[in-house]
Amino acid sequence: MLLAVFPDNRSVLVLKRSDAAADDSVHRPDHRLPTRDELRGLGLDIPQNLWRFADHRGVPVFGVFVERSRLAPLVDKPVKTPDGDRPQLIDRRTAPDTMDVDECTQINRAFHLAYWDRNTTFCGSCAGPMTRIPEEIAKQCSSCGTISYPRISPAVIVAVVRKGKLLMAHSRRHAEGMYSILAGFVETGETLEYTVAREVFEETGIVVRNVHYFASQPWPFPNSLMVGFTAEYGSGEIVLKDGEIEDARWFSPQELPERIPDTYSIARRLIEWFVSEHGTEDDLQQLLTRR
Ligand SMILES: [Zn+2]
C-alpha cells in the first residue's frame, strides 16, 4: 500500500509500508487502506474521497489532495506506525533521488488523477455535482449527464542542433545557472511539429527544419505529456523576444552548462542523445556520470 498525499502541486507526502511489510502486502488480496481513525492517529486528516489511482508492482497506490494545514502535525514531527508505515514529505521533482523511478511514476500518475479529481467537483456545463463512474476513470454530472475524463495537456520539447552545437536557454523560471532545451505547450489546432517550430522561433528567433519525433514522457506538473523532438538549425540568429528567456546559446558537447535538467527527465535524455551524436565517448561518459 502506497498512499500519496498532495498538499500542493510540488510536494507529496508518501505513506508506505516498510520493505518487509511491502513484500508481504503483495500477497495480501485485500490491500486494506488505513482507516480514517488510523490516519488521524498519524496526524493525517484525510477526506473520504480517497481513490485507488494506480498500482506499483501489484501494490495499490492511493492519491488525494489535502490542505497543507492538515498535514502540519506530521510534517513537524514524522512518526512511524506500529505496522511500519513511514510518512515522508518530498518534493515531487526530486523524488527519483530518494525513491525508485517506477514508484515515482505511479505517484505522479496518482497526482495527475487526484489533481483532476479535485478540479472536477462540479460540472463545467451546468455546475451540478460530479460523481465517479465505477468502471472507468471518469466522472459524470448527476444533473445533465456530462462526462469528464482526466485532461492531458501536450507540450513539446526539442533539441535543436547547429554544426555540432545544441541550443539551450536559461529561463526566468530556472534556478540560477540552469540551462535546458526549449519547450512549450501545444496550442489548439496545432500539429506537434508546428508547435516545435513556433516555440523555437518565438523564444529565440531561430528557424528549424527536419523536425523528428524522439520519445515522450508523462509530465504531471500538473497534467502534461511531454513530447520530445530533434530538429536541425535552418536559419536566423538568436534574438530573445519574449520576456521568458533570459539567455540562449549554442553549446558544444565539451562545454555544456554547469546545471542541466535532472537525469530522469526527457530533457536530459535529449541532451544525452545530442552528446552521443556529436561528442566523443569520453564526453558521453562524463555526462552519464553527472547528476
Ligand atoms: Zn452538468
Description of the molecule:
It is built from 8 helices and 14 strands. It is α+β, with helices and mostly antiparallel strands and 291 residues long. The protein has 3 domains: 2-118, Nucleoside Triphosphate Pyrophosphohydrolase (Alpha-Beta Complex), CATH 3.90.79; 121-151, no CATH class; 153-288, Alpha-Beta Complex (Nucleoside Triphosphate Pyrophosphohydrolase). The strands form 3 sheets. Strands 9, 10, 11, 12, 13 and 14 form a 6-stranded mixed β-sheet that branches. A hairpin with a 2-residue loop joins β3 and β4 (59-65). The longest helix has 18 residues, at 101-118. The protein is globular and about 60 Å long. The structure holds zinc ion (ZN). Residues 123, 125-126, 128, 141, 143-144, 146 line the site of zinc ion.
Helix content: 25-40%
The overall average pLDDT, rounded, is 85
Question: What is the CATH C-level name of the largest domain?
Answer: Alpha Beta
**How many β-strand stretches?**
14
Order of helices and strands, N to C?
Answer: EEHHEEHEHHEEEEEEHEEEHH
SS element count, helices: 8
In a few lines, what is going on in this structure?
With 291 residues, the protein is α+β, with helices and mostly antiparallel strands. The protein has helices at residues 19-26, 36-41, 72-76, 95-98, 101-118, 192-204, 266-278, 281-288, and strands at residues 2-6, 11-16, 51-56, 59-65, 86-91, 130-133, 138-141, 147-148, 153-162, 165-171, 182-185, 207-219, 224-235, 245-251. It folds into 3 domains: 2-118, Nucleoside Triphosphate Pyrophosphohydrolase, CATH 3.90.79; 121-151, no CATH class; 153-288, Nucleoside Triphosphate Pyrophosphohydrolase, CATH 3.90.79.
